[in-house]
Amino acid sequence: MLALLGTLAGCAVVPDAKPPSTIIDPPPPTVVAQSAFAAGLAVGPGVGTLGFSRPDANSALSAFVASCRWLTSKDDRSGLTRPEDWQPACDAARTWPASRGADFFLQHFETARIGDGAAFATGYFEPEIEGSRTKLPGYDVPVYRVPDDLVRAWPDDMPEAERTGRPPLGRINEEGKHVPYFDRAAIEDGALAGRGLEFAWAKDPIEMFFLQIQGSGLLRQPDGTVMRIGYAGQNGRGYTGIGGVMRERGLLGDGPGQYEGSMQGIIRYLRENPEDGRALMRLNQSWIFFRELTTDGPLGSLGVPVRRESSVAVDPRFVPYGAPVFLDLDRDVADGLWIAQDTGGAIKGANRFDTFWGNGGDAREIAGGMSGRGQALVLLPKGTVARLQAAKAGQ
């Protein structure tokens, strides 16, 4: 989201929220409300006034159709909608002409502004790096599947009253106690080696570090074939954005000796300062475990492939998974219709988004430098806003 480093298989949600997929650091969270309903919403402008392009609407329609299974069967954490609210639009979408997406959104949706609508958007992408299914000379960075000793349990010393929500991830040590799982440094030093968890190997540890942050990616093998890997789990350790650390240390900026505050600038620093760079990456104790994917794109939180310039990561407490979102930002490349199909560890709060830019070509450049501010609108089935406002008034 996927902050410069802030996504997310089958038909179920991934075991845990993906890591942040963004590299540009997000602003400090200021949201107090814990859902869109609590944050408040207002009627937005008519869909016909938004001015999105036909190609934009057509690609959004395709992504929306892929989201309908979720929309019509899963509870909405934002408190805005019910599965039955989406049924008419989803029924229509299945047979709607693919070239008339704008008419579809105009006929079936209204807009709502969550809170003040002030949006902040970053970007994520699907990196392609050199890798191999087997360990070859020069391919030394292991790609691990989820280890069987990664478990959720309450620490023995945690009082019963504090045991709320899901137990933390960790492992059972030799004394039979639940302790935090191995962190990045321990795993890099071989804590998981020799257990048969490796199912692929990468060539470049820096590229693999950033692929972990994105949550999925492509391994280009020596014979030219491509292997897609996707997020399968996380070690339970906290995520630290190295871009923020570098900024605090005065390493990023426009001054003499500083590096550009983008993914490209961060990578250049890591390559030019290998020892300090390795220590810096280890400050991010989070480690991502993967699985091989046979889909035609990386999977988002809905279990469907995310699409370039159509899929966006959201905080599902404020935007219903599968809902269309309209962004109008100071980064024009991100303006238009998006479908909420993913989430990420740094994507927190109302109107916080992480836009997906696919793989190859300019994807890394756009996503790595994406930091847009402006306004956001959520598109909801017609009649939803009036129902919600009546419910709010009756409280």
UniProtKB/TrEMBL annotation:
<dbReference type="InterPro" id="IPR010611">
    <property type="entry name" value="3D_dom"/>
</dbReference>
<protein>
    <recommendedName>
        <fullName>peptidoglycan lytic exotransglycosylase</fullName>
        <ecNumber>4.2.2.n1</ecNumber>
    </recommendedName>
</protein>
<dbReference type="InterPro" id="IPR026044">
    <property type="entry name" value="MltA"/>
</dbReference>
<dbReference type="GO" id="GO:0009254">
    <property type="term" value="P:peptidoglycan turnover"/>
</dbReference>
<dbReference type="GO" id="GO:0009253">
    <property type="term" value="P:peptidoglycan catabolic process"/>
</dbReference>
<dbReference type="InterPro" id="IPR036908">
    <property type="entry name" value="RlpA-like_sf"/>
</dbReference>
<dbReference type="GO" id="GO:0071555">
    <property type="term" value="P:cell wall organization"/>
</dbReference>
<dbReference type="GO" id="GO:0008933">
    <property type="term" value="F:peptidoglycan lytic transglycosylase activity"/>
</dbReference>
<keyword id="KW-0961">Cell wall biogenesis/degradation</keyword>
<dbReference type="GO" id="GO:0004553">
    <property type="term" value="F:hydrolase activity, hydrolyzing O-glycosyl compounds"/>
</dbReference>
<dbReference type="InterPro" id="IPR005300">
    <property type="entry name" value="MltA_B"/>
</dbReference>
<dbReference type="GO" id="GO:0019867">
    <property type="term" value="C:outer membrane"/>
</dbReference>
<dbReference type="Pfam" id="PF03562">
    <property type="entry name" value="MltA"/>
</dbReference>
<keyword id="KW-0456">Lyase</keyword>
<dbReference type="Pfam" id="PF06725">
    <property type="entry name" value="3D"/>
</dbReference>
<feature type="domain" description="Lytic transglycosylase MltA">
    <location>
        <begin position="128"/>
        <end position="291"/>
    </location>
</feature>
